[in-house]
Specification:
Order of helices and strands: HEEEHEHHEHEHEHHE
Shape: globular
Structural class: alpha+beta
Helix content: 25-40%
Radius of gyration: 18 Å
Strand order of the largest sheet: 4-5-7-6
Strand content: 5-15%
């Protein structure tokens, strides 16, 4: 019964979203940038998951890392990032990595109650099943606060953005294939941002290009295929 209720709730949010007049972005003017990496955006590391583009009930395989899980193909890169940050004197933990559908469902329903059962407000507050990047095993919320390590609750960590660790991550995470997933000012492309130091694996070449050119994942994918990303015309959940 619980799953049936959640399915109906998620369907209502999706309907509200899709009722916004929208279309895929238009073809960028001119040819592709000459320095665009020669990569296949249909590869696993570019799986798109945001407020407007759902992965539905996708469940990945995952490998263990510091009491949590990640897509096994990402574990070595994450371990190297953590080890090198610590070697340089930074305190760093993974607050949240892979989270299964049951965890997302539980916390979505809790948020739904806190948001007075308003599905749109809930969707803006906590990404649910299919639109939560932690579901795909490619994302990590980093923290320098030990109380948030391996956090399985909804939490707040606003201090991280003023930390030396966050500055280090912005500069060095691309060296390990991770990129800041929801940069401020790009909300029209992804909809709802994670309120933490949320980094996503896309591979070293793509991460460095995205960082150097100030691109979010959606903008990067659209350089290869303007129809790869759905964006509502008004760029927001109503």
């Amino acid at each position: 019964m619980k799953h049936r209720f959640l399915s109906l709730l998620l369907a209502s949010v999706l309907l509200l979203t899709l009722c916004v007049t929208g279309a895929a972005a238009e073809e960028p003017a001119g040819d592709r940038p000459e320095d665009l990496p020669d990569i296949d955006i249909t590869s696993w590391e570019f799986r798109l998951c945001n407020a407007y583009n759902s992965v539905a009930w996708y469940t990945p395989e995952y490998g263990p890392i510091e009491g949590q899980g990640l897509d096994p193909r990402v574990v070595d890169a994450a371990k190297a990032l953590l080890a090198d940050a610590r070697a340089e004197g930074y305190t760093i933990y993974m607050a949240q990595a892979y989270r299964n559908i049951e965890w997302i469902e539980t916390n979505y329903l809790r948020t739904f109650v806190r948001c007075e059962r308003d599905p749109v407000l809930t969707a803006k507050t906590f990404p649910g099943i299919g639109v939560n990047e932690h579901q795909i095993g490619l994302a990590i919320d980093f923290t320098d606060n030990p109380k948030h390590s391996a956090n399985y609750e909804i939490f707040e960590d606003p201090e991280i953005f003023d930390s030396e660790l966050y500055a280090w991550l912005l500069e060095h995470a691309p060296d390990y294939g991770f990129v800041l997933r929801f940069p401020e000012g790009k909300e029209e492309f992804y909809g709802v941002a994670c309120p933490h130091a949320h980094f996503r694996y896309v591979g070293v070449e793509a991460a460095k290009y995205m960082t150097e050119h100030d691109l979010c994942l959606e903008e990067f994918l659209m350089l290869y295929d303007p129809n790869a990303v759905y964006i509502p015309e008004n760029g927001k959940l109503n």
